[in-house]
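Report of the visiting student (M.T.), summer placement. My assignment was to run the structure pipeline on a short list of targets and document each run. The first record concerns Substrate-binding transporter.
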Amino acid sequence: MNRSARRIRRTLQVTGAGAAALVALSACSSSDSGAASSGGGSDGLSGTVNVFAAASLTESFTELGEEFEKRHPGTEVVFNFGGSDSLAAGITSGAPADVFASASPRTMKAVTDADAAAGTPVAFVRNRLEIATLPGNPDRVASLKDLTGSDLKVVLCDRAVPCGAAAQKALTAAGLKLTPVSYEEDVKSALNKVVLKEADAAVVYRTDVKAAGDKVAGVEFPESAKAVNDYPITLLKDAPNADVGQAFIELVRSAAGQKVLTAAGFTAP
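After the run finished, the structure tokens were exported:
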């Protein structure tokens, strides 16, 4: 398995056998750390660090992972990106991860309740929702209410994941009910339905709209202020490479890390 192939892995919902598969996948990543640890940098950090992170962090964390490896020769950052609930399930099932960055305190609580976190998780960014439409917004979507029309194909994140829970909170705040054509496993999957023109609109994070560029159009809506998500991060209790995991967290929370995250559309907690 070459370096680029194992840097980023995308996880699916983890239930039953899926949880076992994620544990096995992460164990493979962990076993790679022995090969990577032979050339540690001058700061003593070396080996693979396995970071489980919410799908909405894909672009910004990938950039931070590359920066981390430059700063610490001999290290390698391997990501498992996916729905925060799936990632939490993998961790509590025994996946050998070092760091968990969740898209909501609720999904982080599943990890802390299982006594799997080392210390108290800390919020490092916030994110809010936005409507993603087809390029040019041909359906002239201007509000959350516009999504309730029967002529639009709308997708939402599954209610179990933070972007789905936030969407339901925003809909409740607006006094609206919306039946989507599908519930997707994470925010990237919901956005991709619009990118592929399989849906007319999706309620996603504004960071994902920004990352998609001209593949979608973004529509802000006031109810999103009622459903802002804090993103907590923590070192995990049984981290196979705790020193490198802690150093990665420090980069995320540093001024340099925050610059990358705010450029992606996140805001300070």
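The longest strand covers residues 117-127. The longest helix spans residues 17-36. I thank the supervising group for their guidance throughout the placement.
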